[in-house]
């Protein structure tokens, strides 16, 4: 729901393709999903460090960190979880446009929410990684 109708999208003078060429890599979203305590953040941070060591531009959007700022007004109801993922998807899309490999670490339990983020990106820009950790390890 858009609350303002007097806004205009301002196109950049630098394209995503030009940023990717400058960075020497494609920008994508690696979307880590799984239960709480499954290791999503740990894996995302390890991948980020490995990419950094190879001089590849990347950044982790972590579920807990996002709730300290951008999403601090959201709880854990189904509606708030949906809005949480929607906002993260919008931020991730901006990072992809900036030419950055974006790693996200969110429980994101609803496939429909992840599919909305996926649909907001180009076909090959969303890679979902389910961190399948046994309950006894969580």
Description:
With 138 residues, the chain is α/β, with parallel strands linked by helices. The protein has a domain at 27-99 and 108-130: Rossmann fold, CATH 3.40.50.300. It is built from five helices and four strands. It has helices at residues 16-23, 40-53, 63-66, 78-97, 111-119; strands spanning 29-33, 58-62, 101-105, 126-130. A four-stranded parallel beta sheet has the order 2-3-1-4, with helices on both faces. Helix 4 (78-97) packs parallel to helix 5 (111-119). The longest helix is centred in the middle third of the chain and has 20 residues, at 78-97. It is globular, with a radius of gyration of 16 Å. It starts with 15 loop residues before the first helix and ends in an 8-residue tail after the last strand.
Describe the structure concisely for a colleague:
Helix content is 40%, strand content 14%.
Question: What's the structural blueprint in terms of helices and strands?
Answer:
Layout: H1 16-23, E1 29-33, H2 40-53, E2 58-62, H3 63-66, H4 78-97, E3 101-105, H5 111-119, E4 126-130
Parallel strand pairs: 1-3, 1-4, 2-3
Helix pairs in contact: 4-5
